[in-house]
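Re: the request from the purification team.
They wanted to know what the chain is likely to look like in 3D before they choose a buffer screen. I agreed to run a prediction and write the result into the notebook, where they can find it.
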Amino acid sequence: MPQVLTATGLTTGHAPFVEEARHRGELYIRQAYELYSEENQEAWRRLYQRIRPRWERYANDHFLKGIEALDLPPDRIPRLSEINQKLQPLTGFQAKAVSGYVPGFLFFDCLQRREFPTTITIRPADRMDYLPEPDIFHDVAGHVPMHTEKAFADVLVRFGDCAHTAVRLTADLRDQAERTRRLTNIIKALSRFFWFTVEFGLMRGARGTCAYGSGLLSSYGELEHAIESDEVQRYPAQLEWLINQGAEIDHYQPVLFIVDSFDHLFEMVDRLERWMRDGKLNNVAPGLPEINESDLRSFMDAAGAV
């Protein structure tokens, strides 16, 4: 029988369509575009219109080109099918609708296949400035334009490779406690590296320091703060710092790292994998982020299947 949709609206935290999919254990879903309310569409319009001038001032040139290449609409929530028609020929990437949080290994595995898990809900009108969980504005307006740039897209694929390397390195460990300890440290290192690059990375550009991290590019307040504020410490990206620096989600980042280029970033991910093979990620600094059970279990299950 066809599914009966009993409620409209795809607002983060109040989306029966998504909640029912999660309850059924469905991770990958359709966008269900017909369910977006006028309030949802207005939220996108407001978010886009107010941040566009800050993109022009603070975003890296690759991001701005990506906005144009995708023809990202300013006046309505994009259809993922339309985005993918323009994105796939450029780098092979596709935005893939999901019902919520994607456990760590599954997320990195998607990246290796050039699929980006994409939230379909949008933040409520009274929470324009901050939402701890991702929404479609963060994912599509913050992440996806960067996926039009081949060098950056290749970095994401290398992240997926790293997750598979972590699984292979721990698959044969018979000591369960040691296996858990090593994987916890490796996942923490991968998470921190991803956080301070893909999510909150800065880079050198022709116009000075600019943003390429999606957490910055989708945040009206933090985008300017990251570039202009004297409260932010900005350092050249070093692998030792990236994997040992604590990452927090409930305030503006006080420490950010600058890469020279996406080729530089790709080389750093290569080195991250080499360090993993050499055991240098088996003991990283304690602290945030805490590794949740679903992330750890996703890596353990993948290792068990090797």
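For the purification team: Residues 1-6 have pLDDT under 50 and may be disordered.
Please add any questions underneath this entry.
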